[in-house]
Amino acid sequence: xxxxxxxxxxxxxxxxxxxxxxxxxxxxxxxxxxxxxxxxxxxxxxxxxxxxxxxxxxxxxxxxxxxxxxxxxxxxxxxxxxxxxxxxxxxxxxxxxxxxxxxxxxxxxxxxxxxxxxxxxxxxxxxxxxxxxxxxxxxxxxxxxxxxxxxxxxxxxxxxxxxxxxxxxxxxxxxxxxxxxxxxxxxxxxxxxxxxxxxxxxxxxxxxxxx
Length: 211
What we know:
By secondary structure, the protein is of the alpha/beta class.
């Protein structure tokens, strides 16, 4: 059963959102000093390919350790929604797939933006989910929304509040890679670290592909 890595690598000093902690991965000890190699890692809970807990924007929302494990694993559908830089992703982009947007569904959309990872503008010029599109997806009661952009939309405050609200509680998986290497139907696996009481976590996202 083939596995496809959907995660961007974590590399010391790589770019991130301006207000987030910088990623630092440095040697702490080596076989010469401690007789084993060990590294020190400092990073945001939303570094690289990661997922958001409801607590990320809502003080009374679920934290990572309060979210059921089956929210992070299961059959998923990849929607192809090619977009140009800064182009909007609207409800009209999702309505042709309405039969797939059912309660509990895990939905991932590919805009092509994953190819821009590491380039200038990756965090600024990404295709942007509109507030109307966020409200539409929330109304469909899907369980997970994955994307190849670093965040859903430039209206990040409003869009996150719509998707993470108690009446929606959609798991947001952001910054996915290599979606062009998988078919439209996959089994998605993307478990977070079990941070107690926290707001998100980097993940090793993997697509399990039949055959």
